[in-house]
Design a protein that fits this description.
Beta-lactamase; 16 strands; 7-stranded antiparallel sheet; 12 helices; 3-stranded mixed sheet; 2 domains
Length: about 400
């Protein structure tokens, strides 16, 4: 990875170097994380790129610029962009009712009792679920791991979040149609499988599989040659090991790079969390967003579309602290709105983290993260492979360290 003099990009070199030492000492040497990789860019140049730790448990090879990582929910912004490309094609709109494309959802109601062996009772939704609800997580859907309600218990019972399970996207949608919504669309925010449903919408509107749409409309034009749902056989040796923290056991191997589930064709193409990528590839996606839809002479969407995606779309311009019912997401709530696929910083003071108004970002369950600051024109991509992502405050720490290095 080619870097340039950080000072020429407005960063203090010594302060940037502190970040590498911080990651190496506090997280890798201590055993908290298996490895780390950090890319910090400004405009189109890379001010800092560093890697720490071994790529795999049973090898000596270190994480490098060629390493592949499971980016989980960092897939969501890419899926959201894909949908907005169809909006620009006039094939669908943000206010289109979801059941116009997915008729399975036409009779979905809101939970009104039942569960745990008792048939569900429902009431009608106050408003129909619209495409914008999928993009901003106000659809009334949930995740099974929220562990909060009889509705998410039904998700767990049906194993709806198994990326490499036995459901296709169409079967996934059909299974969801049998489970009530947690709330009427637009009434609250809840982190959910909504972006997976959006992937099913893309497939049906575009008339092609989601992976084919991503490849032909996004990855090939952008030169993101190392981003895919299934790692090609010739690239499996670059896929890092992935870990999880198990109660009473500590860190255990979740998915071995050499025999990864991500090296096999998934039945469910998860627009909410199925992609593998590199820091370099994801940085290209970030730069596309920073340049408002264009990169290296290739335009995927108009600048107004990126502007629309990165506005706060929560009803009444509220923030997550007032709208969220979620026990888990990839962000803090104070001062944070939500756009069309991204969290958006509305109030820097309330967020209590250095940053800029209008900064947008997200992360993944394996502790990966990115942010894009259109004011300072900074991009960051952070890679590691440990779930769950809320174990350590590393995202907050990284943002603080990066902004402290500005001169």
């Amino acid at each position: 990875m080619q870097t340039v003099d950080p000072l020429g990009l407005g960063f203090d070199p010594e302060r940037l170097a502190r970040i590498d030492a911080f990651l190496a000492d506090r997280y890798v040497a201590s055993g908290k994380l298996p490895h780390t990789q950090l890319l910090i860019g400004r405009d189109d140049q890379v001010a800092h790129f560093s890697s720490n730790g071994r790529a795999r448990e049973d090898g000596e090879a270190q994480v490098s610029g060629e390493s592949l990582f499971r980016i989980a929910s960092m897939t969501k912004p890419i899926t959201s962009l894909a949908f907005m490309m169809l909006v620009e094609d006039a094939a669908v709109a943000l206010d289109t009712p979801v059941h116009h494309v997915l008729p399975e959802f036409k009779k979905l109601g809101v939970y009104n009792g039942g569960g745990a062996g008792v048939p569900f009772m429902t009431r009608p939704t106050a408003e129909p679920m619209r495409m914008v609800d999928l993009l901003r997580h106000t659809a009334g859907l949930t995740y099974g791991f929220q562990n909060r309600s009889n509705v998410d218990a039904a998700y767990r019972e049906k194993k709806l979040e198994s990326w490499h399970g036995n459901l296709t996207l169409d079967e996934f949608v059909a299974a969801l149609a049998d489970i009530p919504l947690e709330f009427s669309p637009g009434e609250a925010w809840n982190y959910s499988v909504a972006t997976d449903v959006l992937g099913a919408v893309i497939q049906r509107v575009a008339g092609m599989p989601l992976d084919e749409f991503f490849s032909t409309r996004i990855f090939q034009p952008l030169g993101m040659n190392d981003t895919f749902f299934q790692v090609p056989e010739e690239k499996v040796d670059r896929l890092t090991d992935c870990w999880t923290m198990a109660p009473g056991k500590g860190r255990i191997l979740y998915d071995r790079g050499a025999a990864s589930a991500w090296s096999r064709a998934p039945k469910l193409l998860s627009g909410g969390g199925g992609l593998v990528s590199t820091a370099r590839d994801y940085h290209r996606f970030c730069r596309l967003c920073l340049h408002r839809g264009e990169l290296d002479g290739v335009r995927l969407v108009g600048r107004k579309t990126i502007e629309l995606m990165t506005m706060n779309h929560l009803p009444g311009k509220s923030d997550l602290s007032s709208m969220s019912r979620s026990l888990f997401s990839e962000t803090q709530n104070g001062g944070t709105g939500f756009g069309l696929g991204f969290a958006v910083t509305d109030d820097v003071a309330r967020s209590m983290i250095p940053g800029s108004p209008g900064e947008y970002y997200w992360g993944g369950m394996f502790s990966t993260a990115f942010f894009i600051d259109p004011v300072e024109r900074i991009t960051m991509v952070f890679m590691t492979q440990l779930s769950p992502s809320m174990l350590y405050p590393i995202r907050r720490e990284l943002k603080t360290l990066i902004y402290s290095a500005l001169v």
